[in-house]
C-alpha cells in the first residue's frame, strides 16, 4: 500500500507536466509562429544542379518568439515573385532552434527560367516576394504543423558561382 501512495502523486505530477507541455506547444494562443525576418536586400544564389538544370538558393531567416526551443522539421510552401509562381518547395531540413533565436532555413527551387524571363519582371528593381505554406515543428514528443505566410518588397542580390 505504501508504494501505491507514492506512485499516485507521481503519476498525477507527470500528467500535469505533460498537459502543460502539450498545451504550450499545441495551444494556438501559447505557441507563437516563427516570424519571417527577410532582409531588404535578399541574396539569391543561382547555381547548376546539372549542366542542363539551374536552381535558386535562398536563405530564409526566421525568428522564434517562444520562450522555449523547438525542432524545425521541414515543410512545404509555394513561392511567388510578383505574380509569377516560382514553384512549390519541399523543405526536409531539421534544425534545432533555441528560444528567442533567429534561424536560417535553406530554400532551393528549380523555377522555369524560360517562363521567368518571359514574365517581364525586372529583377534589377525591387520585387514583391510572397509565400504560403506549412512548417512542421516539435517540442519533445509533441509535434505541430503551423501555417506560414509572408509578403514583402525586396531587392534581389543575384549571385552566380
In short:
The protein has 161 residues and is an alpha+beta fold. It has helices at 2-26, 113-118; strands spanning 35-36, 41-48, 54-63, 70-81, 84-91, 95-97, 102-109, 127-139, 142-159.
Q: Can you walk through the features of this model?
A:
The protein has 161 residues and is α+β, with helices and mostly antiparallel strands. Helix content is 19%, strand content 51%. It has two helices and nine strands, in the order αβββββββαββ. The protein has helices at 2-26, 113-118, and strands at residues 35-36, 41-48, 54-63, 70-81, 84-91, 95-97, 102-109, 127-139, 142-159. Strands 1, 2, 3, 4, 5, 6, 7, 8 and 9 form a nine-stranded mixed β-sheet that branches. The relative contact order is 0.23. Residues 24-29 have low confidence and may be disordered.
Radius of gyration: 21 Å
The level of helicity is 10-25%
Segments where pLDDT lies below 50 for 5+ residues?
Answer: 24-29
**What's the story with the biggest beta sheet?**
9 strands, mixed
Q: Which structural class best describes the helix and strand composition?
A: alpha+beta
Number of helices: 2
Order of helices and strands: HEEEEEEEHEE
Q: What is the residue-mean pLDDT, rounded to a whole number?
A: 84
**Cα separation of the termini:** 72 Å
Per DSSP E runs of 2 or more residues, the count of β-strands stands at: 9
C-alpha geometry = elongated
Approximately what portion of the residues adopt beta-strand conformation?
A: over 45%
Features:
single chain; 161 residues; alpha+beta; 9-stranded mixed beta sheet; 2 helices; 9 strands; 19% helix; 51% strand
